[in-house]
Design goal:
heterodimer; A: 280 residues; alpha/beta; Rossmann fold; four-stranded antiparallel sheet; 34% helix; B: mainly alpha; binds adenosine-5'-triphosphate; binds magnesium ion
Chain lengths: 280, 265
Amino acid sequence: MSAAFTARGLVKRYGAVTALDGVDLDVEEGELVGLLGPNGAGKSTLVKIGCGLVRATAGEAAVCGSRAGSAQARAAMGYLAELFRFPGWSSADEVLLLHQRLARSSGGPGERGELLELVGLADAHARRVEDMSKGMQQRLGIAQALVGSPRFLFLDEPTSALDPGGRRTVRRLLEELRSRGIAVLLNSHLLSEIELVCDRVAILSRGRIVAEGRPSELARPRGVEVDVDGGTRVFTGAGRADAPRLVADLVAAGEHVYGVRVLESTLEEIYLEAVGEDAG
Amino acid sequence: MLVLTAAFVGLYWLGANQAFDTVDEAQPPREAILAGIDTRTLTGATLFGLSMFGTLFLGAVLAAFLTLGVVRGDAERGLLQPLVVRPVGRGVLLLGRFAAAAAVCAVYVLAVFGANLWITWSAGGWRPDRIAEPALQLAGAVCVIAALSLLGSVFLSSTANGIAVFMVFGAGLVAGLLGQIGEVLDSDTLTRVAEISSWVLPFEALYQDGLVAITADTTGFTEFALQLGPFGGAQAAGPFLWPWTLAYLALVGGGAYAAFARKDL
Ligand SMILES: Nc1ncnc2c1ncn2[C@@H]1O[C@H](COP(=O)(O)OP(=O)(O)OP(=O)(O)O)[C@@H](O)[C@H]1O
Ligand SMILES: [Mg+2]
């Protein structure tokens, strides 16, 4: 089985600016990968190369086994752009209808209704785009990306305009997509969101992947905290495996142990460490 | 656009009625009598020539309006990206936009042409010698402008493209005018310049050829035909005009596609 998305040695230069500087990345079938990185790191550029909107200077990318940008690749994927707009005079339903035609989807009104329901816009199906709030338009954008049951989704900051409720809707939606076996590459600045839903995280900085792995793999032990009579004692450098021995030693030394906590670095700390001085 | 058109057609109706009324009382110019052309024909042809220029101009505005921002303008607003990532692809999208704009503009031009035709007939009882030919030529001219505007939209943002399209439109008219002056002054250089530019910008040649067609069967009209439009007059273009126009549209379209296919959006 081919991976949902692969990038090999991708380089993109805009004149003197190097947006991508040799990126390798895989998204397996059904996998949800989060792409993190500071502003200007090249996240959107990577996604646009995957969609065929931007031509790579060097390297290769493929979507579901077809060269990125080819008609087959485009037929297999859905895309939510970072900045997009739909014609102001069209209704939510009409936008989806147009995309059903373009994607040659045979879903009909059933698919449109289901998608609007999925993004929480069921009540607004007849509302014109120009009368929608920004967050509603973003929800419609997500629904649009899902038209034609794509096997792979590029979502470039899908929750940037959403309220907390909307973010949770999207989180549930992502879980739903995972249960259907749809792979996703998700760009976001919301670390907590990525941590909650993604199988894997890649951190991009100045056009290079600087860290990659499962959130739990990336997390490094920061020490063990133990509450004893005299207060809290911190054993820096110790990990989860060290905890039983530490407690046993303390008890043997006659201390009363009230609580033990294993400290791990948060995704935020990993991120800040990985992007270094780029963090601002 | 609707208001503009209504204003134009309304004004033309007023003008045509006025003109024919005054002409009936006035003495025809000496040259016209000598050439054996009656004043009604002269007035009708002159008026209708002017109306054709107005129709061309309004058609050009509509063509530019419909195609101004098809690529870069829409990409900057974020309208284009969701569409081009769909399997239909960039070529079909571009062709679709051109076909839609060309159809709207052609129908528009034919309608305005028809309205002016009726006004001229009802006001003065004059009708052009050929009807279908100049009408189709005007429609063709406007399609050429739509294609040029589409090509410009690949490289320029909407505002810049709008300015560019009207500079090109103006350049075509000025070239036609230079050709007329060249003819009168018997200057080979000027006629040559005008000839080359009418190949480079065939909408001008189509318009001029259309002007010729309205008095095609009226004998002795050639010298007056020079004064038909506000920017110089009619100039017959020869049999290669239509094949060249089609080839030109294909070239401009091919160029636009080649540039669009490589463009980062
Ligand atoms: N069309 C373009 N022309 C020139 N430079 C560009 C273009 N698009 C992007 N860049 C440059 O490429 C680099 C990467 O941009 P990109 O949009 O991929 O960043 P990003 O990681 O998505 O940032 P953000 O978090 O702000 O969305 C930036 O330095 C940007 O200035
Ligand atoms: Mg971005």
